[in-house]
Amino acid sequence: MATTLKNKLEISPTGSALGARVTGVDLTQPLDADTAATLNQAWLDHIVLIFSHQDLTQEQQLAFAANFGTLGTRSRSVDRRPEGADYHDGVMLVTNKKDAAGNYVGSLPDGEMYFHHDMCYMPQPHKGTLLYAIDLPSTGGHTLFTNMYRAYDKIPEALKKTLAGRTALQVYDFHMTETVDIDGDLTGIHHLSQPIFVQHPVSGRTALYVNRLMTARVDGLPRDESDAILSELWDIAEAPENVYEHVWAEGELAMWDNYCSCHARTDFPATERRLLRRCTLVGQEMIAAV
What we know:
Elements: E1 3-4, E2 10-13, E3 20-23, H1 33-46, E4 48-51, H2 58-65, E5 92-95, E6 113-116, E7 128-135, E8 143-147, H3 148-154, H4 157-163, E9 167-172, E10 190-195, E11 197-199, E12 206-208, E13 215-218, H5 223-237, E14 243-246, E15 253-257, E16 261-265, E17 275-281, E18 287-288
Parallel strand pairs: 3-4
Antiparallel strand pairs: 1-2, 2-3, 4-15, 5-17, 6-16, 7-15, 7-17, 8-14, 8-16, 9-10, 9-13, 11-12, 11-18
């Protein structure tokens, strides 16, 4: 059921496992305290919020994001970023667009991308991510979101007991769209162990915190047992009933809670341009669920 405020702000659930569409708000304008509080609660309740028909500059996107926390910065060093000096330190272009010399002007350019949590390989992963669509291909390039609260609830009790208190190794290289070989040399590749079950710092709810792209192994288990468990967890998390597929329109902004959701990208024609602008919110160390 949609929630409507006096100022015409309306929050309508997608009808899927997570997500809500928000109308009646112009993100180019500062938010009053009541609207900001309502959107913060809606974000907590629905995990993903979608705002359509917006025309946002970089500065307006960052100003809106600041209503929900401290703006994040990039983990990728400046000399390895293609965006250039015109962009805020926390902004990333997700695009396959190239400059006149044939170099990509952004990151994560082409093709399908497996489910993942943003920055789970860092000590303080992002609290949230805000992604704004500027140019889109004629087909594909959708974003899939999974509800990791529901994923946790679906895990068999015996497996929950096996994994209680355990951690998993998260590994990521900046060129990855598929999993990395952890038997190789991880020098220069971000990697960190995180709790498998985490407690959301605000809602207090328990969420599953593994993902197909970056989770390499369950710490302390034989490789074959770890692989089997991770495969089962990924299948639970990515089950259709647990997923919202967002089909983008230009001028849409999506924001998601990185503590209790994963996201993925579907394939799209490499010959067609796709350009989205991303910013993030500073997070905290993950809290192991008790």
